[in-house]
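Job type: complex structure
Entries:
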Amino acid sequence: MNDASLILVTRPVQLAADRPAEQDGFVVADPHSSQLRVLDLGATRGDGIFETVSVTGGHAHALEPHLARFAYSAKLLDLPQPDLDVWRNAVAAAIANHPPVPEMFVKLVLTRGIEGGDIPTAWVYGEQSGDFSAARTEGIRVVTLDRGYRHDVAKTSPWLLQGAKTLSYAVNRSAIREAKRRGADDVVFVSSDGFLLEGPSSTLVLRNGNRIRTPKTDQGILAGTTQASAFEFFEAEGFETSFEMIALEELAAADAAWLLSSVRQAAPVRSADGLDLAVDADLTGRLNDHLLSSPN
Amino acid sequence: MNDASLILVTRPVQLAADRPAEQDGFVVADPHSSQLRVLDLGATRGDGIFETVSVTGGHAHALEPHLARFAYSAKLLDLPQPDLDVWRNAVAAAIANHPPVPEMFVKLVLTRGIEGGDIPTAWVYGEQSGDFSAARTEGIRVVTLDRGYRHDVAKTSPWLLQGAKTLSYAVNRSAIREAKRRGADDVVFVSSDGFLLEGPSSTLVLRNGNRIRTPKTDQGILAGTTQASAFEFFEAEGFETSFEMIALEELAAADAAWLLSSVRQAAPVRSADGLDLAVDADLTGRLNDHLLSSPN
């Protein structure tokens, strides 16, 4: 069994004024035993939220943007606002409780708890990351799949939770299986009205000449934490960056494309729906060096 | 804490030929302890399926249709086909292990298990049902909410898993919260192109004169097990029944409407988007008597 670290967060909600301040708000748990009841709404309804943070050399990347997005997801799901000081400390404890490794990830999860119980369940889990060197250098093959929603669905139908990072990810995993059936590695979702959106667990970034673009986040997609760090890199390199509505057809027409995510980092797209895209090995290598060493 | 019964299904996949036939395929567990690991894909990705079966007088209603739908959901999610003999026996054990009560429910759950482990997690949980007498007699207020998908999305985009009963129900629960914010009790989802679909955990049935209609199930909605039993009742009463595409506007224009589900049974709709609908107390009462006593 892999090494792993598990922190059960015992104070996922805001501190009541009468709670003693010296409590850390979490306990260290055994990652290889059972911790959840079958009645937990995380397990029975996918009713909760998560974030995955990349850690290199003991440093959690983009932790504050991840925590901010975690709090935003909690708001969209009407969950209690997480006490970010407790979560920050729990992430540090998950890192400290794991044997040192070059790359690990820490996952933060908050569920609505046992049905009727009104007490969220919360944990932080740490584990060594897989080896993504092939995806980072040779690139990935993607297929575009219809997500079924119009690009403006987050505005018209907020109850659909588009833009929240929820535990209800069965469709995201189903889409990956569909990609494998089509001989590809990953997916770029497209709105029902033809706009590029995001991957099931990644952000799309396109390069056309000196322009770097990512789909506008008001289309029911997540604001990418890795994409934000990548934009810093591209801007320092002299590229122009922007958030735009991007039509499906522009993927195959791009000079280069990447899917960005916290653990795999920048994976260059080497084919889209069977059409080859150029992989810029030098630019991608420097981008990944930036992402893996960035203080953000 | 409520009485409850929990059966951990240890053989959720088809029996290998060399496995001894005398194994029951399940063990009785303590429902009040922890059984799941935080790495279970049911808890981290809502990646699994479920069914909820109503039990009165020790009899599991519509068990075979529930098991058939469970197997269908497994297929849509590329999960191993459940060994229905084992599940049938586990349901019987959950009933036998629960103190006798007038109405209880049994929930069947199959998750994809621990990531990378390739062994599904499976359980059957039994508990006394809540008191739904007010919903069954006085009725419920519903609002219609856009589900965001076209009516034909299950055909065009099967990776969206519409028509599968998955654990990724965060949107269904979010929709219920939206209904409460609007002063209602429940939801009728509508396709983005204006057709009535289903409730977050129920089937819609409309009456117009002698005609009883429910939305066609090829619109990415579940085939209702309680609706099937209700149609037997209506046909015996001399009504004509059919599955149809039904426009949003027809809900308010119906002579009567019900949301049907396994545990609450038939809840008459007393208002839709704030417009009153007539509740036929006599017909609804006889329908619920049928559903609660039916051998199916």
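Summary: The longest helix of chain A spans residues 63-76. Chain A has two domains: 4-128, 133-293.
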